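Tokens for chain A. Residues wanted.
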């Protein structure tokens, strides 16, 4: 099993989208790479924790490769927007790729480079090692399964 943490705006849609992929074995919504320990949703929303809403993805490399996950990620976000996706605005909605395995960095940078060659604006998606990840509250886990009419800026049918 391998893991990667992706931030693509509101974590509800990111989690729901990646749960549908064959080879993704587990997803957890949470807060990544901020400055505080064990933040709450309310604290993250205020914007002073520097955490981003993110999803921890565990995947089986025999079924899906990191390149495929990154292609899917780039397809559901606008990587040229800073601190915003869809109607969600704030630092907690910045996009990011947070890796746990240093060996993944080359693949991530190659993926970004390939995408950048097709865009006229610069990609602002953070690419950093994962420093912190705190699971979000239970009501955020599988939110769109529990609330099928909940807001989501991602087209889940892609």
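Reply:
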């Amino acid at each position: 099993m391998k893991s990667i943490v992706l931030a693509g705006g509101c974590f509800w849609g990111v989690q729901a989208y990646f749960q549908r992929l064959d080879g993704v074995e587990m997803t957890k919504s949470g807060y990544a790479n901020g400055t505080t320990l064990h933040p709450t949703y309310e604290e993250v929303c205020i914007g002073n924790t520097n955490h981003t809403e993110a999803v921890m993805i565990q995947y089986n490399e025999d079924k899906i490769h990191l390149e495929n996950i990154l292609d899917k990620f780039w397809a559901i976000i606008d990587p040229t927007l800073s601190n915003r996706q869809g109607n969600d605005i704030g630092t907690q909605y910045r996009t990011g790729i947070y890796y746990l395995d240093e060996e993944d960095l080359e693949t991530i940078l190659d993926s970004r480079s390939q995408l950048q060659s097709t865009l006229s604006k610069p990609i602002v998606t953070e690419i950093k090692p994962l420093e912190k990840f705190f699971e979000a509250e239970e009501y955020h886990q599988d939110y769109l399964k529990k609330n099928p009419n909940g807001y989501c800026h991602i087209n889940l049918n892609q």
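Helices lie at 11-19, 41-46, 66-76, 105-116, 143-146. The chain is about 25% helix and 25% strand.
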